[in-house]
Amino acid sequence: MNVLKPNQRATVITLLERNTPLREIARITGIDRKTVRGYRDRWLAEQAHSPGVATGSEAVVTQIPPPWPPAPASVSTSLCEAHRDFIEAQLLLRRNATAIYQDLVDAHGFTAAYNSVKRFVRNLRKKQPEQFDRLSFLPGEEMQVDYGEGALTLVPGSAAAGKPRYKRPRLFVATLRYSRRSFRRVVWKSGQEVWARLHEQALRYFGGCPQYVVLDNLKEGVLKPDLYEPELNPVYAATLKHYGVVADPARVRDPNRKGTVEHAIGHTQATALKGKRFDSIEAQNEFLEHWETHWAAKRIHGTERRQVQAMFEEERAHLKALPLLGMQYFSQQVRTVCDDSCVRVDHSSYAARPAAIGSKVLVRIFERRIQILNMHGTLLRTHERAERPGSVVLPLDERVFNPSRETRSILRQAAAIGPQCSRLCELLFAIEGRVGQRKLRGIVGLARHYPAQCVEVASEQAMAQGVYSYKRVQALVERAMADAVAAMQAGSDAQPGVATQRPLTQQHSLIRDADEYADLFSQAAALKGELV
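User: That's the sequence. What structure does it adopt?
Assistant: Structure tokens below.
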């Protein structure tokens, strides 16, 4: 209690004797109400134990202190009571006391002070304390994770520059909900892959996997917070799927859902790291592991009244087995399929078919391979990662056009026509090179309009004449075709009707015996008679 000057103390005692309320005394004197309350209690105690004694011939009179607090002559009512309905309606709109006071003055003729409104609003806002349920989980059911701040650590490279600088790294804590056994690591920077790797290290540290992991809605884990369907980061989601763990993000602004790991972070900061400094991240991680093993794990938990390590040994048997291989991490990007049916990744091109040209695809970049998926996550292609920038990973049969491949295709078509045509095309390509592909394409294209035998004969005649030209071969083919037509017409004129008549086939696997045809005709006639 503050010590007042004699004049102030006399003023307070005088006002107390007049039964003045504490609030009014504080307003008149400018003294804090708590100080006035202390002097009032001391004054009441003196009045109760010290009877008043008169001087001279006056008789001794015992002074009985008045009751405290004094009963008011009449119950005071706040001037805001007449406007209770209006004030309650404004509070439902989340308006503050200042706005309500201004509206009362402007629209309702309110004449009292602002403090009257403030006290009235404060009393209306009193709420019952919120109840929090005690959560209980089975062994191996849940793990809670979160970030905090570690102890001051020397920034790498700052000491060599002559200006040592200390900074607090990020403290990752993973706590098994049943046993309260924790895994702690500090890192300088965080990201999708770092967040996933810390989870993997925690699971390897515990020697098994829980069923669920509860996390906050930080960007490293949750890409888009949502009450019903939160969207996880792809790397984090793939890591949890690899280990068979299901993510259960806490609701936004609901840290009590993961109160166990929140308490573990506070316990680490207040007990293990308070007032400490480390020369490196490795030194701090080594200290945290030693502290967890020798102190935190051996403590008796305040709620369960059991040793943490003993509960962890009980929970260890309920954790799911770890996979044999670790997680293969990747970075995921969205790419557009270019007009050559490829996607560009790190200055190299990779085939993306069957994805359509111009469509969006997901590209997962691993250390040694590339995966191409559609936007729904279905795997389309897998390629070995190119070692040299500028590489094109595109099979020859998927290339729309390539001069070298086109030459081989034309020569295969010429070989299908005949050996003479193939020989002519090879000689023509040897003479003119890739420019002669036009002539080669024209020669093999003659087989679409004329018999292949005519093209073969014309190719032989062209080579005999030493003229390697498409037009020469075309002229020879047309001449051979005309000669053949003329020969056919001449033969039909010399023996009319002979060339057009063909002998009838008497024996064939499709021709039946005459008796079978007779039976068929008889059955058809009988069926027709029945219908009539």
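The two ends are 128 Å apart (CA to CA).
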